[in-house]
Amino acid sequence: MGQAISIATRVQPETALDWSDRSDFPLDWNGPVDRPFEAFPDEARARPIVELWQKAVVRYPGRIAFADAQGSLTYAETWRTVSAWAERISGSSAPGDLVGILTPVSTAFPVAMLVCLAAGRPFVALDPNYPPDWIGRALDDCRPTLLLVTNATSRTALPMPDPPRVLNLDTACGEASRAWRPAPSGPDEPACVLFSSGTTGAPKGIVNSQRNLLQRVHQSINAAHINSQDRLLTLTSPCTIVGVRDMLTAVLAGASFILLDSQKAGARDILCLLRDRRISILFAFPALLRSILAAAPAAAEESLRLVRTGGETTLWSDIAQLRHWTSPGTLIQLIYAATEAPMMQWFVGEDPNADEERIPVGYPLPGNALAVVDERGAPVRTGEVGELLVRSPYVALGFWSRGRCDSQEFPTDAPDCRMRILRTGDLVRCRSDGLYDRIGRKDRQVKIRGARVELDGVEAAIRRHHCVRDVAVLARADEQGHVIRLVAYVQLSDEAPGDSLSELREWMRRTVPLYMQPWRFYRTCGIPRLPNSKLDVSALRAMDLASQQEEAETRKGSGAIDLLEKDRIAVLVAHIWRDVLGLRLCTGADDFFDLGGDSMGAITMTVKLEKALGRDLPITLINQAPTFAAFCGVLRDNGRATYSPLVLLKPGRGSPPVFFVHGVGGSVMELFGLGRKMAWAGPVIGIQARGLDGSDAPSKTVEAMTDEYLLAVKSQQPQGPYFLCGYSFGGLVAFELARRLRDRGDEVAFVGLLATLPPGHRWLRLWAWTAYLYRSLAHRVVGYGRLPLHLDTVTPPDGVLEELRAIALSALSASAAYRPGPYAGEVTLFEPSHRDLGLPSSAKPWRRYAATLRRVRLPGRHDDMLAGVNAAGAADLLSTCLSEAVSHRQ
Length: 890
What we know:
Largest sheet: 9 strands, mixed
Strand content: 15-25%
Number of domains: 3
Strand order of the largest sheet: 3-2-11-10-12-13-14-15-16
Distance between the termini: 55 Å
CATH topology of the largest domain: Rossmann fold
Helix content: 25-40%
Number of strands: 35
Shape: elongated
Radius of gyration: 33 Å
CATH class of the largest domain: Alpha Beta
CATH architecture of the largest domain: 3-Layer(aba) Sandwich
C-alpha cells in the first residue's frame, strides 16, 4: 500500500512535522465499553505468539478454535496437530528459513500458520485464488525452503525453475515427541510475509514481526472487548493482514474463528453461515457488505454484535443500511490500516457535521504518530489535504526479496532507532475533531482539464446512487499518455431498471462538477477484484481495452464517419472538435457540452474555425446546434442559424419547462453549466439576446425584450404554470415577463432572480457595477488572449468585441430606463454569498415591488456564482426551490 521512507532524505526533519499522537485515547470509545472481557496486556506484545496461545489451549481445551464447511478443530486438537508438524519442520529446515503456505480457505491455513510460529520459521502466505503465474512470481521472489499444501492445492502448477520442497498437511504426521518444545523467533525478527498487490498488481512481499502482529491483536481485542464467547467470521483471504490478525485475535482471546472462502461463496451462503454459526463479529470489505445487504432479510441475527469494515471507501449510506439491518445494539467499527502498519479505527457514531458521503476513517491508534504533508514534505494545516505519514515501531520490517528481508526500504528514524517511517501514498485531511478523512490515493489522482480529480472520490460519488452496487473508475489516456476522460464500470443492483445508466449519467451531471463526470458508463455483472478486495487493475484495463475496441468498430460503422469521408466541413470540425475537447468523435449525435465543452471551449472552437474557413462566425453557433451533425449542418449553410431566443440547455419531460433569461452579455453560454446540472424533471431553456450573431441590432429596452421573449415563451408553452428565472440583468426581464403573464391571467408558479439589482440601485453604485461589467466582458473577450489556441495570431474573432459591447451597452441602457411595476406574487432572490465591493444588498429594494420576497444564498460572487464548482450548488438550490413551488401549488 505504501512505501517507507527516510525522514532525512524524503520528508521534512522530524522537528518540522506535526506528529499527531493519541496514545491516551481509549480504543473502545463509543464502543462496547460495558462488555466484560480480559484485556490483552501491553507486556504480552513482547512474548512469543505460540506461548500466549498455549495458555489459551490450557484454558479452553474443548472449545472450538477453527471451523470450516468440512469440520472443526478444538483448541486441544489444534495444538496436537501443530506440535507434530512443527517438530517435523524444525528438523527439515534451518532457523530463519522461509516456509510457504498454499492452502485453501480451510482450517488448514491457521494450522499451517501456527506450525510456522511454533517452529520459529517465518511464513509466506499465498492465496490459491490468485493466478498460477502470480503465485509463481511470488515464490520466485521470496524463495521459501518448504511449501505447505493440502490435497486441494498439491497439484497447483508452479511455473518456476527451482520449486521448493512440498509437504502435504493432509497426510498423517503422528504426534510430537515428549522432548519437543516450541522454538519461536524473537519478537522483532521476521514472522510472516504477506504479499500486497498495491495498485500495480505486481507482487510485493511485506515482512512483519511477531511484535507487529501482536500490536494489532492487542488493539483488536481491547477495542472490541473480544472474549471467549465470540465467534468471528472474516470475509477476506486468510493471506491478508486482516485475515492473519483476526485468526490470531480469536485464538489468543479463547474465541472461535470460522473460515469461508468469500471468493466462492454467494451472499446467501454468507447469510446462512451467520445464522447457523451465530456469528458475533463479522468483518467484510464495503463492496462485499453491499452484496450481503442486498440479499439480506429484514433483520440480522441477534447474535451479531459487531460489524467491522475497512480497506476501501465506506459511505454513510452503507452505515444507514447496516443499521437498518442489524439490531439496535450492534456496533459498527471502521478500521483503516495497511499491510505495512496499523493506523486508525473508530466505532462509527453520528456525524451531524458530515459534509460529504464518505465516512471519516478514524482516530490514530495508540503507538502511532501521524503527520500530513504536502508535495514538498512540509506539514499542512488542519483541514487541508496532504499525504499521510506514519511514525511507529510497528511499521513493517521491510520487503522479502531473493530469500531475505531487505530492511533498507524501511529505514529507522534517527532520533529513535525503534521508529520507522511509512509514507502511505494516501491523501487525507485531519478534521478539527481529530478524525481523519481519507480523500484518495496519490497514484489514483489525475488531472482533468486542469482540475485534480481523485478516482476514489468519483467512485464514492457514483456509489451514492441507489441503483449502484459496485463501481470502478479509470482514466483513459490518448496515444501520448495524456489523460482525456474518465470511464466508469458499474455493477447495478438486481432491481435496477434497464435505463439506470442513463439515469445515473443525469444524476452525476446534477451532483458533481463537470471534471468529475465520467465520459462513458459501462454496465458490468461484477467489478474485478483480487482476493484482498482491491481492484484487479489488470483485469479492469483488459475490460476497458475491449470496450475501446468495440467503440472503434462503432465509429467505423457510424454515419459521422461516413460524413468525414465525404465532407470537408465535417473533417475540419472533427479535427478541431478533437483538439478542443481532447477526444475523438464517436457519432453525429455527440453533444459538445455533454462531452465536457464549456464557454471557453466554444470560443476556442470559433476562433479556430474562423481562421480555417476564412469567415466570421457567431459565438452563439454551438449553443444553437450543440451536436456534431447539427453544427456541421449550420456551417454548411454559411454559419448562420436562424435566430431564436430559445436555446435548450437541458432536455426533460414530465414537468413544465424552466425559462432562464440571459445576463448582461446576452449569451446563454454561462448558463449551460447550471442548466445541465439541475435536477428539475422538465426542460431547462435559456433565452438569448438578439444581435449576438451580428445580423440584427439588439433590443433597446426591457419592455421590447419582454415583448419578443413573451411570444417565444408562449409558442413553446401555451399554458401555465410558468417557471421563470433570470441572471443579473436577465432578472429584470424575467420579472417583467412574470408581470405580463400574470396580467394576462396566466399562472406564474415561480420567479427567480439571481444576483439581480433593481435598476435604480445599479446607478447608485455605478463605479462598482462598471467594475463588474468589465470583468464580465473580460471573461468573454480579454480571455481570448489566455486561451491555448495554438494559432499563429491570437485575436478575438472579427466583430465579437463590437457585438458583445453593443449588447452590453444596450442592456445597461435598458436597465437604466426600466421602471418596474408591482408584482402581486412571490419572488425568490438568489444572492451571492460574497458581495462585490460597493454593490449593495438587493433584498430591501425588491421588497418594494414584490408582494412576497424570499431570499436564498448561493456560493460565490456575482460573476462566478453559476460557474465552475459553484454551478452544482446553485443547480441543487434552484432545483429545490422549483420543487417547493410545485408542492405549494398542490
